[in-house]
Amino acid sequence: MECAGLVHATRPQIPPRVYRVALLGLLLAACGGKPPPLPASVDPGLQSAVVGQGDASSGPAWDGVVEAVQQAVISAQTGGRVASLHAEVNDRVAAGAVLLRLAGVEQRAGLEAAQAQLKAAEAVLVEAESRHRRASELVAKQLLSRADYDVARAARDSAIAARDAARAGVQQAGQAADYTVVRAPYAGIVSARRVELGETVAPGQALFAFYAPGALRVEAKVPQSVAAQLRAKPQAQLVFSDGRSEAGGTVTVFPSADPLTHTVTVRVAVPAMASAPAPGTTAKLLFPAVTTDDPRAHSVPATALVQRGEVSAVYVVAGGQVSLRQVRIGERHADRVDVIAGLEAADKVAIDPVAASQWLARRQAVRHD
Running DSSP on this structure, what letter comes out for residue 104? Predict the structure, then answer.
C-alpha cells in the first residue's frame, strides 16, 4: 500500500530523465529495496549561451549613444520670473522663435535709468563744448590765459568720456532687457523643458534642451588598441536598437584617452535615413577592420551572471553537468558583461541562473536519497 501511495505522488517539475531515476529510487527505498546508482551524466535541459557569441559577427562591437551634432542647453542669461512659456517638449520651432518670456521689470527699469543718464551726459557735453569754443576764441585773442583754456578743454574731454560711458550703459541695459525674451538659436526640436510658469530663474539656470534633427552621430568609448587601428583604417557599421544596420559615415577618433578609464572616444556619423533614430537611444558600433583580440570576445549575457556580494560567478553547462564557476568580470554593456578570467571562448553558460541552481538542488537531492 505504501508503494502504491508513492506511485500516485505528485510529479515534481523536473526533466523526465531525472524524474524517472529519482522516482525509481524512491519506490525501491520505500519498499525496502536499494536504489540503483545514479548516472554520471544527466541532460539538465537548460537554456545556455556560448561564451562570446552574438556580438562580434561583423567585427568587435561597442555600445554607443545616438546624439545630434547640433545640440544645446539654453540657459537664462538674466534673472526674473517666468511670465509666459511658448514652447513645449517635441515642439518644432523656427530659428529666432520665442521660447520663453521673463517679467523683466528690473531690466526695463535699468534700461530707462541708463537712457536718462545718457541724456544728462549729452547735456553736460553740449555745455562743455560751448565753453571750449568760447575759450578757444578768447585764447586766440590773448584775452584768456592758457591755463584757463586747458581747464575748458579738459572739461570738454571729460564730458565726452561721460557721454560714451552712458552710451555703453544703455547698450548693456538694453541687452539685459533683451535677455528676458529667450529665443531658439536655430531651427530645431525642443527635447526638454526644465522650467515652469511663474518660477523665478537665476542667470545660468538651464531652461530648455534643444537640438537640430538633421545631422546625427553615434559616440562610444573604445580601448586604446582599437583606437589605434581605427585611426589607420576608419570603418564602422551601425546597428540601431530596432535592428536596422547601416554603414557608418565619417569616423572621428579623439586624439587623447580618458585618464580614468583609459578609453578613447569615437564618433561615427549617421547617414541620412528615412526614419532617423532619436537622440539618446543606444546603438552598436561594429569595427570590421579591427583584428586584435576583443575584450568582449569573452563575454556572457548579463542575465547569466550570479552576484554573491563581491564574488561574481556563472553556471557552466558541460557534459550533462552544471557547475558554479567564479569569474572575474570587466565592463558591463547593455545586455552583456565582459569576462576577464574564468571562462574560455567555447564554454557554455546557463542563461537562467535560478533554473540552474534549482536543477543542481534537485540533482543533489536525488544523490542523497
Answer: -
Measured CA angle at 92 (ends 88, 97), to 5 deg: 85
Please state the separation of Cα 25 from the chain's center in Å. Answer: 58
Average pLDDT for residues 190-201, to the nearest whole number? 94
Question: In the block, which residue shows the cell 569573452?
Answer: 298
Q: Are 61 and 286 in contact (CB under 8 A)?
A: yes
**Going edge to edge, which strands form the sheet with 200-201?**
181-183, 98-102, 80-85, 200-201
CB atoms within 10 A of CB 85: 19
Q: What pairs with residue 318 in β-bridges? A: 321
Q: Are 268 and 285 in contact (CB under 8 A)?
A: yes
Is the separation of the CB atoms in 246 and 66 below 8 Å? no
Q: What angle do CA 286, 294, 339 make, to 5 degrees?
A: 115
Residue whose C-alpha cell is 574731454: 157
User: How does DSSP classify residue 304?
Assistant: G
In DSSP terms, which residues pair with 190 in a beta bridge? 210
Lowest mean pLDDT among 98-102, 237-241, 246-250, 308-312: 308-312
SS3 state of residue 133: helix
What are the cell numbers at 21?
531515476
